[in-house]
Amino acid sequence: MKTESRETRRGNRVFKKTLKSKNWMFLKTVNGKRYYFPVGKVLSDAKQSADEIDAYSLFNSIEDTVTKFRPNGRRVFGENKKVPTVGEIIERFTLLAPADLGVTDTTIAMYARSIRVMCSRGLPGRDPDKVHLSDINPTVVSAWKRSYIEGVSDQEKLKSVKRSLNSYLTGIKGLFSSRALDLYHNWDVSASEALLALRPYPRVKKTYRLPPVDLLTRTFDLLHSLEPNPDHYVVLALALHFGLRRKELFNARREWVSFKDGKASVAVFTEKDFLVKAGEDGYAQGSEKIGRKILELSTGFDYLVANRYIRSALDPVVKSLREIGWDRGMPLHECRKLYGSYIASTENLYVAQKNLRHASPMTTNDFYTDLVKGPEVLGLWAA
User: Fold this and answer.
1) Higher pLDDT, 71 or 156
2) How far is CA 29 from the centre of its chain?
3) What is the CATH number of domain 213-381?
4) Which letter, b or e, does each residue of 5-18 get, where b requires 16 or more Cβ atoms within 10 Å of its Cβ?
5) From CA 235, how far away is CA 309, in angstroms rounded?
6) CA distance 211 to 335
7) Are 287 and 381 in contact (CB under 8 A)?
8) pTM confidence score
9) Tens digits of per-residue pLDDT, 43-75?
10) In whole angstroms, what is the distance from residue 92 CA to residue 68 CA?
11) Cα torsion angle, 226, 232, 238, 239, sign
């Protein structure tokens, strides 16, 4: 008997039992036993369903897989699509988004927390994971926002709360982006349209401002004092003089550093097991003297930071920054912002954007740069 089969993106195969069959099938063999799953009439949907079933079965028993994807012996298609729960949305996104959309685990966790917070605040007393998507209506959204805003009279605090709500909203919308919707192709997620239509609070962005001059001075004094401890010096020097992010600091390699025309460049590109944030590859330029000192002091063979445990490599530097007066959320990231302000002040905003590797100059302008004034402050970056 002739059959027709096609390969999926993940290397699975869907097939039709005969050339006259309407539905595609997916076969999963476990311990010598065959389990057939009907995966629909449309080939693209069938391929995606097969990959979804295969991925789910990697972390769950075949019995659970059958129960989930073949309830009552069949799979539901067309107008009878089920409305998923929040837990099911999160589960499928967590399972498929890393490979299909290139989303990191950190981003997935943020998205999941966002929609769970909305449900727990908007529908108090209910398990967020058991809330159906269709239950999230304007009343729920209003209750969620009201639970944060009520009683807040201070205007700066109110702006801060609204910024948090905007961040949650961004995470929720991430679960239902145009690309993510393909992950839920066999579910009814039409209720997500109302969530995608929600608008963030306007005019609540927090513009970056430099810290006091005496704190800047103490920060550079700290850098010089760290020379006897190579790893700590390398971490802070890369943050202050080249604006690298936390994971970039830890993953920086000797081969990233090069020299030309009296300046040092640090190349930050995705490679091996390191993924640059949001694909923002590029170069950061800084002092040639500091670049050479980093290479000289580093005791690592490949990586500039020899200690290959990220917490023990970076946390002592963070602790030292806090001890000299840094009370902002992420001291090492604040050093990156100092670098951005220095480049914007000595060059221009465009150069700062390129060195910080931002997709938009507005990000650089609003969150990373403030003018560095006075020769005594600008001189802090002089090697």
Assistant:
1) 156
2) 36
3) 1.10.443.10
4) eeebeeebebbbee
5) 13
6) 11
7) yes
8) 0.57
9) 888 898 899 999 888 888 888 888 888 755 444
10) 12
11) negative
Percent residues over pLDDT 70 in the chain: 95
Angle at 276 between CA 271 and CA 281, to 5 degrees: 85
Where does residue 14 fall: left (phi above 0), alpha (psi -120 to 50 degrees), or beta otherwise?
beta
Helix axes 213-225, 331-346, angle to 10 degrees: 110
What is the rounded distance in angstroms from the CA atom of residue 347 to the CA atom of residue 339? 12
Interatomic CA distance for residues 344 and 55, integer angstroms: 47
State the pLDDT at residue 276: 83
CB atoms within 10 A of CB 133: 23
Residue 102 has which token pair? 């290139």
Maximum distance among all Cα pairs of the chain, rounded to whole angstroms: 85
Instruction: Specify the long-range contacts of residues 133-136, CB closer than 8 Å, at least 24 apart.
Output: 133/83, 133/84, 133/85, 133/86, 133/89, 133/189, 133/191, 133/192, 134/83, 134/188, 134/191, 136/86, 136/191, 136/194, 136/195
For residue 98, CA distances in Å to 7, 34, 57 come to 20, 28, 17
Q: Which CATH class is domain 4-77?
A: alpha beta
Angle between helices 331-346 and 349-356 (to 10 degrees): 140
Q: Which two tokens stand for residue 235?
A: 């971490």
**Among candidates 149, 135, 158, 43, which has minimal Cα distance to 89?**
135
Place of tokens 């109302």: 194
Domain boundaries, the chain: 4-77, 86-196, 213-381
Q: Which two tokens stand for residue 270?
A: 């995705």
Provide the CA 186 distance to its chain's centre, in angstroms: 26
Q: What angle do CA 302, 305, 311 make, to 5 degrees?
A: 135
